[in-house]
Amino acid sequence: MAFLFRKRIKILPGLWFNLSKRGVSTSIGGKGITINIKDNKTRTTASLPGTGLRYRTTSTSTPSTRTGIPGWVWVLIVVVFVVVVFIVK
User: Considering the entire predicted model, what is its pTM?
Assistant: First the structure.
């Protein structure tokens, strides 16, 4: 059995500083979409809160290998935004 360590420090609403055994990273976002930045990698996670459905993609910061977010992820982001703004009220 291994020991695990993770500490998440809230800097501002929607902005966290993450410390773990593997290193340091920064997370931006909240329910629905989160962007995590560590070293030369960016991990984007889009989800539908409460459903268990999510999509995660990892990319490097090198411009030649970086691709845009797929169109269906933007649709998912808009749907999550509409759900959060209009239904959660």
Answer: 0.58
